[in-house]
Amino acid sequence: MKPQRRSPRTDLPPLLEFSNIDVWQGTKKALNSLAVTVGEGEHVAILGPNGAGKSTFIKTVTRELYPDANVPGLVYRVHGQDVWDVFSLRSTIGIVSNDLQYTFTREIIGREVVLSGFFSSIGLFNQTVTPAMDRKADLILAFLEIEHLADRAMTTLSSGESRRLLIGRALVHNPKTLILDEPTNSLDLHALHAFRQTLRKVARSGTGIILVTHHVHDIIPEISRVILMDEGRFIRDGKKDAVLTSREIGRLFRVPVTVHEEAGWYYLTGY
Predict the structure, then answer these.
(1) Count of CB atoms situated within 10 Å of the CB of 33
(2) What are 37's strand-pairing partners?
(3) Three-state SS across 199-210?
(4) Has residue 191 been placed in a domain?
């Protein structure tokens, strides 16, 4: 697969326009006056500790959760639209999450995982796979360099292999943006390296990346903007080199750290 390289479009509505977003989960306010604008094709990392509200933010983007409609000044737009059919929305924004991987841990072969993206299903049942879908699956498997996983069952794969197939599943509709929720949890060093290379390839193809993580080392060089999140708020938003500093990261995670940069990658020591 050789996708057309897409540059960020300045003539299109932003991917996300959020302002005064409050989301309640029971009696707890999980998102508190959240505001952010993310452009089409932009590569952004959202970094924060466990419990910061990162997964709630993703579910608000995908409309699994909704903000409090009674908050004055509420803005809740995706691709410039206030109202979305959820299935249409999920075809334009690809999602890769640990919850999705858990759901797919069953006797489904890799090729079926990718093809299931056309139907928003877990595997294939009575769906009719067209020749065009088959060709697209072949292109995606080749693009991600995972053809060798096509006939392997998900139950036999490592976490890293499974996640690369789920990226393939997310790419079948040529989404403008790919959202990844804590994508490197449980990956060993080899799997981490392979996953990073896959993610960099997707980013360079022109698909926007929103990487949600609590690991600084997940942030690939192609990501230029970092947003720090804590206690349901975005507390810092800016260029990567200005945000990923020892002071900012130490304050976010409440530990003394030293941030090091090497060839576009950032690492922490001292904790």
Answers:
(1) 14
(2) 17
(3) HHHHHHCCCEEE
(4) yes
Which H/E stretch holds residue 34? strand 28-38
DSSP annotation of 37 reads E
Q: How many CB atoms lie within 10 A of CB 102?
A: 10
Of the CA atoms within 13 Å of residue 264, those in its CB half-sphere come to: 9
- CB of 46 closer than 8 Å to CB of 16: no
Closest CA to 33 of 45, 41, 24, 46: 24
Question: Is 196 within the bounds of a domain?
Answer: yes
Residue 68's nearest CA partner among 37, 36, 25 is: 25
Tokens of 265: 């990658």
Spatial distance between the Cα atoms of 167 and 97, rounded to a whole number of angstroms: 10
The answer as to whether 134 is a domain residue is: yes
pLDDT value for 89: 73
* Residue 271: strand pairing partners: none
**Token pair 């090091």: residue:** 260
**Residue 34 covered by a domain:** yes
Distance CA 40, CA 61 (A): 14
Q: Which domain holds residue 94?
A: 16-269
> How much is the pTM?
0.89
- In the chain, the N- to C-terminal Cα span, in Å, equals 42
Residue 26: how many CB atoms within 10 A of its CB?
Answer: 6
Q: What's the pLDDT tens digit per position in 98-107?
A: 888 888 888 8
Q: What CATH number corresponds to the domain at position 167? A: 3.40.50.300
pLDDT band at 11 (very low <50, low <70, confident <90, very high): low
Please check the confidence at residue 137 and state whether its pLDDT lies above 60: yes
The rounded mean pLDDT for the chain is 90
The total number of structural domains that make up the chain: 1
